Amino acid sequence: EMPVYAIKGETTEQYNSHLNSVLDVKPHITMDDGMDLVAMLHTKRSNLLENVVGGTEETTTGVIRLRAMAAAGKLAFPVIAVNDAQTKH
Question: Is the pTM of this model over 0.85?
Answer without folding.
Answer: yes
